[in-house]
Design goal:
9-stranded mixed beta sheet, 279 residues, 7 helices
């Protein structure tokens, strides 16, 4: 497989910074007899653009000293929810500071696909608004004392994957972006402004991602000599990383399905991708 391996002057300020919990655990891959405790410190915070207040969730392992890379985590079209925060926790366990961000405002979540389509469409069709909200979150992450502001990446799921790819193509100051079960027909397609390394992990059985759009994306990336990897999990459907996908698929009659193998393999690919980027 080939390593194929939106502007605004937002006023950003932190409104609320509340500790919501911490937990300790032993990493599973530690050798017998050795214990490396993970002490996650998580904070819910409020931040804003000129027009919108948003809810974020920032988490890191306080047992690690010094600054580390920061990772923005962008939610699916359902909005900033527990799944997004779980992925942030998982990144913190790996030694990053992660921030699950809010692209809808006020932590708004969709309860129905119709609402999700409306909320996500409003963001993706308004580049200035999308960039302002993304920039606001990135500024908060960069200013956190645990973060090296020169080492910032972003990952996203579904809608969130399209967001991070679009932001990278818009020339944002990102070292790397990774997108999972994400559309690749984007508001801003790959161009010379792209600076980030890119990982895309999609399902081959995802009806929301057409072969034509993937071909166009790859051709655009190749045309600028981008550093990217596109992974296609042949039998995986949309939302393959989410354990809640099956129940949501049944509830709303949507082609969603969790795929344990693709989930685990794509997470491993992400960690290798981030390690290569920052080490």
């Amino acid at each position: 497989m080939k390593n194929v391996v939106l502007k605004s002057c937002a006023t950003v300020f932190l409104l609320v910074f509340t500790i919501v919990g911490c937990k300790q655990e032993k990493k599973e891959d530690q050798p017998a007899g050795q214990t490396e405790e993970v002490n996650l410190e998580a904070r819910t915070l409020r931040y804003s653009t000129d027009s919108t207040e948003m809810t974020g969730y920032l988490v890191y392992n306080s047992n690690i000293e010094g600054k580390r890379p920061g990772i923005l985590v962008v939610h699916e079209w359902w909005g900033h929810n527990d799944y997004t925060r779980k992925r942030a926790d998982m990144l913190a366990e790996e030694g990053y500071t992660a921030m699950a961000i809010d692209m809808y405002g006020d932590g708004k979540q969709a309860k129905h696909p119709g609402d999700a389509a409306k909320f996500s469409g409003m963001v993706m069709q308004n580049r200035e608004l999308a960039e302002a909200r993304f920039d606001a979150a990135m500024e908060i992450l960069k200013k956190d004392p645990s973060v090296d502001p020169d080492k910032i990446a972003a990952i996203g799921y579904c809608f969130g994957g399209s967001v991070v790819l679009t932001m990278a193509n818009a020339g944002k100051d990102l070292e790397a972006v990774a997108a999972f079960h994400s559309g690749v027909q984007l508001p801003v397609m790959p161009n010379e402004d792209l600076k980030a390394r890119v990982l895309v992990a999609n399902g081959g059985a995802d009806p929301f991602i057409s072969e034509e759009s993937v071909t166009r994306f790859r051709k655009a990336m190749d045309s600028i000599g981008a550093d990217y990897t596109y992974i296609n999990y042949e039998d995986a459907k949309h939302a393959f990383t989410s354990k809640g996908a099956d129940s949501l698929g049944r509830k709303f009659d949507l082609p969603l399905a969790y795929d344990e193998k693709a989930d685990q393999e794509s997470w491993k690919a992400l960690l290798e991708f981030l390690n290569k980027t920052f080490n």
